[in-house]
Amino acid sequence: MSLAPSTSAGRGDVTLQPSFFTSSLYVNPFRDDIRNLIHAYHEQYSRSLEKPFALFKKVWRAQGWEWLQFKVFDNRSREALMDVSHRLFLERSVKTEAPFTRVVALFGLYTFFNTQPSSSALPLYSTKHIPIPLGMYYHQYSSLLLLPTSLTTESLLPLQPYVSYILQCLVDCEVFYIIPSSDLNAFNPRQLPREIYVDSNSSESTLQKSKKVGRPTKRDKAKRAKAALDGIDKWMHKTSAPSPSVPGEEGGATSETPSAMHYLLAQPPTQTLTEYQAHKANMLKAIDFPPANPSGVHLAMEQVSYDVLERLRQLQETEGPKLKTEAPSFAGKERAESAVREMKERGGLGLLGLLEGSGLEGST
Q1: Is residue 189 pLDDT above 60, yes or no?
Q2: Is residue 189, in this structure, part of any structural domain at all?
Q3: Domain tally for the chain?
């Protein structure tokens, strides 16, 4: 049910419209702010003896989250602000996220919902429920209720009673409003952001790419395919080197038809591999890997691994329909999931161990 426009704003006052909060102007920075909140809390949590939720409120205030409730006063705009913000917090609480990330997202959701102004000179719109899909990648509602059971490691165990208490409060107050699975498009809008803002300073080509002019014709597709093929052919010609071949062998090169192979295929990328190994060694040294418990999982390694899995999932959802193909184009996602699962069970490097498993890192 949509709300009637508010008359609280005076004539000539500028009021943010609801479409602002569903656009990339709000959604993308908000996602970045949630990511910064998670990282800031993780940094404080790893070296603080303060109680977990008290520490979270301290980080929350330090980053200015408490003033977000007063961003707008118009009823319709506040409705969009609350709905989109709750939805973006829930977005980071799905089962594919790292347990620590899910905890911080739940803390943020709970705090943002319960800090709605309840008394002011001019009553402000406030929401009583948070829509949550029954199935969003996984059954989000049930997996959220089971979140305390996943906080079993030594570093996460202190968070368990706080998570249990918050979930119990939300359930007892009937805050969650169950909606159908996200693949049934129960959210409005279906996807965030709904409106994409294009800067006026962007290049003409960028503006043209952002415009939706309808389905391209077969002629346009053929022209684009030919242009892409020509571009690859020119790049290969510039960066290729002659490959050795034995004269007289079948399929071998002749003086009339010299054979060429791209340098990345002719020899292993040793320089890139060496640089990667150096950066990897510096990173592992910076986070004090391996942990004291050889069978344990390093918290930072686990966080990064789940972040990568989330990006792969988003890529599969956004690019998969365009490619009109199934799993083979995203085989890397299955390998990454297997590596993270093995890390959870046995410890180790997780995604950073994929190169070792391929035999490249140990090659000379």
Answers
A1: yes
A2: no
A3: 2
318/180 same-domain check: no
pTM summary value: 0.56
Is 35 among the domain residues? yes
Buried b (16+ CB within 10 A) or exposed e, 210-239: eeeeeeeeeeeeeeeeeeeeeeeeeeeeee
Measured distance CA(333)–CA(318) in Å, rounded = 14
Query: Which pLDDT belongs to residue 114?
Result: 93
Q: Which residue has the higher pLDDT, 337 or 172?
A: 172
What pLDDT sits at residue 163?
96
Q: Is residue 52 part of a domain?
A: yes
Query: Residue 81 class from Cβ within 10 Å (0-12 exposed, 13-18 middle, 19+ buried)?
Result: buried
Residue 42 covered by a domain: yes
Which domain, by its residues, includes 296? 266-358
Contact present, 99 and 297 (Cβ < 8 Å):
no
Angle, alpha carbons 152-156-159 (nearest 5°): 105
